[in-house]
Structures are given as structure tokens and as C-alpha cells.
Amino acid sequence: MTGIVYDTQNKPVPNAILKVTDGLGRVKQTAASNPEGKYTIKVLGAGSFALVAEVIGFDPVTTGMIEMKGNTLSLDLKLGSLSRAEAVLTINERVIEPTVDQRNAAVFNKTLFTRDDQILQTLGAGLNFGQHAGGGKSLEVRRFGYNLDHGGTGGGLRMNLDDLIVNQVSGGHAHGYLGAHKGLSPELVESVNLVNGPFNAGYGEFSGLGVVNIKTREEMPDRLTGRVQLGQFNTRRIFAAYSPNSKNTRMLIANEYSYSDGPYEQPLNYTRNNFTAALFHTVRPGENFGFRLLGAYNDFISAGQLPLDQIEAGKLNLFGFVDPTDGGISTSGTVTGYYGKERANGDRFYVNGMVNRVLFDLFSNFTFFLNNPEDGDGFGQHDSRLQQALNASYNKPHQVLGGLGNFTGGFNYLGN
Hints:
Immunoglobulin-like, elongated, mainly beta, about 425 residues, Ferric Hydroxamate Uptake Protein, Chain A, domain 1, about 50% strand
């Protein structure tokens, strides 16, 4: 028996507890809905039974007695109205349980994005991202009035891309780095979950001001997808994707190219080129594995830091520059693997891993030809980094002394 559990607004409900009961109301089997609200139960034994769906905050719903007339049955359930007593409990739980905001793919498909900060700026939720030095450095991250510098170390904001952390503790130019987001193409964003609770145990030291979980597509809606966008200052962007899917296999190959000179006297020559390849396969219902490859290249010239006294004195244009060699190059490659298995009783096991290689060179001049009037005082900062990450989790719904529970265990590892 399969189906989907919906709430009163017809949205799928994850982690709903489903119980198969006999004519006397005795519970024979239990299961839980997955993150998409779907459930699967292998009904044991013959005869009639009822199906009950329960979740905190809603009145439970029951089907009444059902008699299986074949080998399979598809049945969707819609939860009842908000339970007054349980709704009060849910509000009280927010003191210790993190709230989750969700963003769908619609906003990412309607805007011209050429930089990673523009993609993340759409999330809202108290988040503010700033970009400087031509668009190639790590983002400046702020949330709820706190400045987390370039991503934040302990007590910062954790950023996940397909369940794997992309924060770096340090960078070639500052504390913390979010370079992996430069390879994120907006058309490939499927959804974003924002966890607002502090220091969630499952996310480690980076989650002091919440967690941003970005999930990308395993396949495109169409076999072929193309988009061309043009803007001011020689801004142009091309996106192309090929998604040849079969019954049990989802595939995706995509490339994003963008370029912009920006509004400056010296053109930025900002170039962004991202390549994505993904393959996901369903071995059998409830069991899946997949791989994803992500390559990113950023090349930019920067206006750099400008002396305000020279601008106010009229000696330097607000959109001018001091050293034409400021700028940098950022290149990264990421390989990820995924495996998940869900049993008919609602047990779920999930493991994923990542290897990430980042090369970054940044060229800056903060003293404006003070010490070397002819060649300038520019300097280069080089960062060569290798990261490995591994996550595993096990989830089991259960029933103890008539009460419903959900056990979750797991671990995560980040090598940097």
C-alpha cells in the first residue's frame, strides 16, 4: 500500500506516523512518511484493516475499514484541522526545536543571476550576502545583524549543498570561505530549507546562526533546456542542459556561462563557467544511489579598495581604480556520491560523501603604490585546498507503551 500524506493546504507532510489497525483498533504495523510525504507499507496478513495518519499539530485522520482486493493499493490521506491543544504544544516547542523555512525553484528560474551572492540574496530569512573584489572572492555573510565575515567559523552559518557542507574554516584571504557556491547554477536549484535553530547537533559547530540546505535537481523537467539572457555592461549568460532519463535512471548534464564588464572604468572581465553532471538510479522501490560532478571556474579583474579621500577630492572617480592588476582566479572540482534505502516499516538509512578540490589566487593592493611608485605594492594570496566529507544517518519510527516515537542517529565528518 502506497500513498502521500497531505496537510490542510494540500502540502506533503514528512515524518507522519501511519498505523495499520484491526477491527478492534489494535495497531498491527507502523510506518512513517518520507521527506516528500510518501509512505509505503507491506500489509501483513489477510482481512480488513484501517489506516491512521498522525502528526503533531493536526488532528489524526483514519480511513475506516479497508479490504484489500488486489496485490496493491494506492491511498492518499489528508490530515484534519489543526488541533488546538497540539498547536499550543508546537508553539512551545519552538524554544528548543528549530523552525524551517522553505523556498522552491520558482524564484531561481525567473531572474538573471551572474554571481553567487545574487542567487543566495533571494532567500531572505534575515540573511544578507555581499560581494566585493569583482565577484570572485568569498561572500560576506550577515544574519540577524551579525557579521559572519566570509562564511563564519565556529558559531557561524552552515551552508549545505545536497546535504554536504561547503563551509571552509579558513581561506587564502580571510576567515571562512564559501567558494563551492560559485559552481551553483540557479536553474538546478530544486529547493532550499533554512533551519533557524542554533547549534543543531546534526550540523556541528557551523550552525550557530542556522543552516541553509540547498537541494539541486537530479533531472530536468524537459530533455533539452536552453536559456540566453542579456543585460547592461556587456552582461550575458547562457545555460544549457540535457537530461536523458529512463524508467529507473535520472541523468543530467548542464553548463552555465556568464560574463560582465560591470559599471567600472576598468572592465571587470568577470567570467563564470560551471559544469554539472549527475546520475541517479533506483535499484528497487525505496533504494537509490547516485553520483554528481561539479566543476566551477571564475576569473575576474577587480576595482579593489578605493581611497575615499581621493574620491572626495575629485582626484579619483567613484567607479575608478588604482591598480589594474587587482583581481583573481578561482577554480574548483567536486565529486559526490549518495546512497539511500527505505524499508516498508519506515526505517531509512542514508549515506553520502564528497571530495572537493579548490584552487584560488587573489591579487590585491592596499597601499596604492606607496612603497613602490613604479610597479605598485600589489601582492598575491594563494590557496590550494582539499576537502573530504562523509555523512550517514539512520531513522526509525517506533511505538513504545502506546506512544509514538522517532529515533534518529548518525555522524558526519569533514576533513580540510
